[in-house]
Amino acid sequence: MAITNTEIARIFKEYADLLEIKGENPFKVRAYRNAARTIENIGKSLEELVQEGYDLTRLPGIGSDLSQYIQEIVTTGKFSKLEKLKKEIPPSLVDMLSIEGLGPKRIKTLYEKLGITSMEDLRRAAQSGEIQKLPGFGPTLVQKILKGIRLLKKAGHRFKWSEAKEYVEDILAYMGQIELIHLDVAGSYRRKKETVGDLDILATAKDFSEVIRHFVQYPKIKEIVSAGSTRSTVILNNDLQVDLRSVEDESYGSALHYFTGSKAHNIAIRKMAIELGLKVNEYGIFRGKERIAGKTEEEVYKAVGLCYIEPELRENRGEIEACKVHRLPQLVELEDIRGDLHMHTGYSDGKNSIEEMAKAAKELGYEYIAITDHSRRLTIAKGLDEKRAMEELEQIDMVNETLEDITILKGMEVDILEDGRLDMSDALLSRLDIVIIAVHYKFNLSKERQTRRILRAFENPYVHILAHPTGRMIGIREPMELDMEQILAKAKEYNIHLEINAQPERLDLTDIHAKMAKEMGVKMAINSDAHNIFSLRYMEYGVNQARRGWCEKNDIINTRSLDELKKLLKR
Known about the structure:
By secondary structure, the protein is of the alpha/beta class. The chain contains 23 helices and 17 strands. It has four domains: 5-154, DNA polymerase, domain 1, CATH 1.10.150; 159-246, Beta Polymerase, domain 2; 251-324, 2-Layer Sandwich (Beta Polymerase, domain 3), CATH 3.30.210.10; 334-568, TIM Barrel, CATH 3.20.20. It has helices at residues 5-22, 26-40, 46-51, 64-76, 80-86, 104-114, 119-128, 139-155, 161-175, 187-190, 208-215, 252-260, 263-275, 297-303, 319-324, 354-363, 386-402, 426-429, 447-458, 484-494, 511-519, 539-548, 562-568; strands at 159-160, 182-185, 195-196, 198-204, 221-227, 231-236, 241-246, 279-281, 284-287, 290-293, 339-340, 368-371, 407-415, 434-438, 465-466, 497-501, 524-527. Helix 1 (5-22) crosses helix 6 (104-114).
């Protein structure tokens, strides 16, 4: 079976973590972390690239050694260096890195001095006072450790939607090898939530015992929890739980609706059914003991007097009321997108040239793109000073002359400084077709100061789009504290558009804020924030988020023709 980019990145991350705990050279550790980040952000299967003979050293941070290691993993499914290191250091120590205050050096000390190899060992040592006896492990740190253990147990692990997608596609392809009547993934995955806790798969077949036998032989299973006559539960090698359920054909719509959720949406539907003297469950719609509907989801909704409601809207956030008065949105589709207004090239921290990005975008059917490399303050991303920015603008002109059927707009992603000023001069900004502004540092300002910072940036007459507005990174960094209503109101006043950033770890705006923006009349742009030609395909994830935020084609500026877009960008 195919090995996913997520799996390869996970292998390199685990290796980097173990190297760090071992006390290896930090540059070596960083090389593997950077490689993992590159792999996560490629947007195309590494296995396919290897099969096509693509030179992996063209990817950022991938040298000849790492290229060989990737090929080893793709070919064998394992990384021999990691397997060897696991024999020296218990992999469970890696989990401790997520606890505040426990870096690699302290974990190494705990392992060597106290023989701690698991969370349970850590908890006992913290509660008994053993840890506090070690140099540098005071009472405050011990309390942080105990709190961190509790939080880990409470939180559980969730997977980014994009990460789950790789497994879903692989599982569905594998299950497609046998005869099935229906096969669908339900749950939060089908609703396209930004993270997924587990996968619920429904299947209908003439012989379900054969389905179970085939399912439990899926090569990426770490543990078979159960394999019953109507349901099987397995844990995959990345710890993602997958439940496969047998469903009768006449109940398939009811089961798909029930297991898609959300719980709040289902409860609301159930209450409506009760008022009509009906009963709704995963087996169908019943009047007394008679099943009157349930073969399709459309039947389920029709039975309670509703139209079909798209899975992304099923959160009990007004979709039922909107359906009753025929006001459900006609949700934006990936095919509606006509251009991408946020991407990076080799001029800053991207990998490909302007021409390569444009040609790749053209293959996706886009009419236009905007090249928006970073401004000078973001030195870690090789941000442009004004001289290099002017060189890039000239290069864009030259490339535009050579291309047909796609137009490259001149843009920049400009840092918002702490006081709200922008990182580039108005003289430079005035030469751009599109100015995207973003916060890249000082994320912990107070709500009042952070809001004021962005509002001041809005006052610059050359600004068009606020990128990844809250600055959150899913599972990594909390969103900034902002008065979003105030920001949206000012964006509306100044005709500034907010971005739905499609990077899988960002998806910022959230669905809640996207819906709020729509309701306040603020237009949005769905952008890939691509740093190479492959991650242009992240657009799909941004569209998912927009759909969950009730966005229609008219709410998104880059669904317009180039002429229409230019009119929308005028301030």
